[in-house]
Amino acid sequence: MDPSVAIALGLLLCMSCLLLILSWRKGFGRGKLPPGPVPLPILGNMLQVDLKNIPQSFRKLGKHYGPVFTLQLGVERVVVLYGYKAVKEALIDHGDKFAERPPMPLSKAFSNGVGIIASNGETWKQIRRFSLMTLRNFGMGKRSIEERVQEVAKNLMEELKKTKGLPCDPTFILGCAPCNVICSIIFQKCFEYKDQKFLYLMKILNENVKITSSPWIKVYNSFPSLVLSPGSHHKAVKNMQSIIEFILEEVKEHQRTLDPSNPRDFIDCFLMKMEQEKQQPQSEFIIDNLVRTVSDLFAAGTETTSTTLRYGLLLLLKYPEIEGKLHEEIDRVIGRNRSPCMEDRNKMPYTNAVIHEIQRYVDLVPTSVPHAVSEDVQFRQYLIPKGTTIIPLLSSVLYDDEGFPNPYQFDPGHFLDESGNFKKSDYFMPFSTGKRICAGESLARMELFLFFTTILQNFTLKSPIDSKDIDITPIANGTIRVPPSYELCFLPS
């Protein structure tokens, strides 16, 4: 072995040992942690977790150790919450104590501790409050958010018509629509589908979803000392830097053209808030926070919705009888002569149930975005030390058989009562729950309803292969469950 390689490996081993010792000392003598498998030196419980299917591994461990269990993943101690009752008790009943974010290496590289997803304390509280208020009140422009989504949906239909009913991979087209919605809100612009900058942004966003859902990223986050080693985390960080540079260009243009009497979008509103607080030395409203918040909204608002749309259409190809019932309800309630609107949703229980079931079954973010406890927490009969990473296993809630009988079966009946009316479920948590529930939940719900209904109002879906041969197994089960690649035909109705 090359001496330099041997030295590097030796240093890596020593650093890992030191970090592991520090990690264990952090919680030593501070109470009883939840049960879990005995960890190995350095690796902890990494060998007991299938990094290609973490949710499945956690399900097996949850059934063995109970609804609250501890794992040592490299240098990172993790407490996993399994099942509806444990997740609700932690994130809702003890929401304030479970609302922190842990210092994960890749997350730190992406956000630098600011923005809306990975920040903590006063930064998170103020930025989240401002973002929610701005998104909620976005009647400030010439058009409401619903009108923006409807316009993007019409453009999407024009692009789908260009496929002329021939087999196509819908990944790019379905990604562009939600991306243009969020761009409309943040930048007050929609991109042409052939815009080269837009094409590049869509490419690197899609690339980062695959990278962050890969087994390597779990290894990297569990062993921060690997930061200098070769790996896909470098590509993910480079991609994120490209997005940051694009946003910075937009911010500079907004600064140059800002009219305080007529705010055009999210960036304008943030710049105005910066001006209001420029005399406050501790203000959270600074350029870095603006750029990272826009980056969070841009990435999260694009990939989660587009992946759900793509997975949803695949499920409808697999179960064409469900698509047929959707067409019947759309024809009866909306017809063919006007665009769908949000008022239609209350009159369309079956469509509403199918969209909810798609989100439940897809289980898009199975392990949620990790939480951390802000102080030593007495939880049930255990004491969880301050700073411990918490993983609320959303899979275990969305697939809880107490809330959803036959959870592994795709069945819109999970959200319908005996009379065929839509019924809500407390177990429906695709956006997580509690203090850290997704800030864009209402927008995502709107987009999913308007995009699905508009597509099915205009097209019949057809698979080039028999529905029985369609594989709906995800190709990645990490941060996001990524559906397999497939082709379909959009046949004009």
UniProtKB/TrEMBL annotation:
BP terms from Gene Ontology: organic acid metabolic process; xenobiotic metabolic process
GO CC aspect terms: endoplasmic reticulum membrane
A Pfam family per the record: p450
Cofactor(s), by name: heme
Entry's EC annotation: 1.14.14.1
Entry keywords, A to Z: Endoplasmic reticulum, Heme, Iron, Membrane, Metal-binding, Microsome, Monooxygenase, Oxidoreductase, Transmembrane, Transmembrane helix
Primary location group: endoplasmic reticulum
Any one GO molecular-function label of the UniProt entry: oxidoreductase activity, acting on paired donors, with incorporation or reduction of molecular oxygen, reduced flavin or flavoprotein as one donor, and incorporation of one atom of oxygen
Subcellular location as annotated: Endoplasmic reticulum membrane; Microsome membrane
Segments crossing the lipid bilayer: 6-24
Ligand binding (heme): C438
CDD domains with a match to the protein in the record: CYP2C-like (cd20665)
Family classification: Belongs to the cytochrome P450 family.
PANTHER family, per database record: CYTOCHROME P450 2C9, CYTOCHROME P450 508A4-RELATED
Protein name: unspecific monooxygenase
Organism: Phascolarctos cinereus
Chain's gene name: LOC110215411
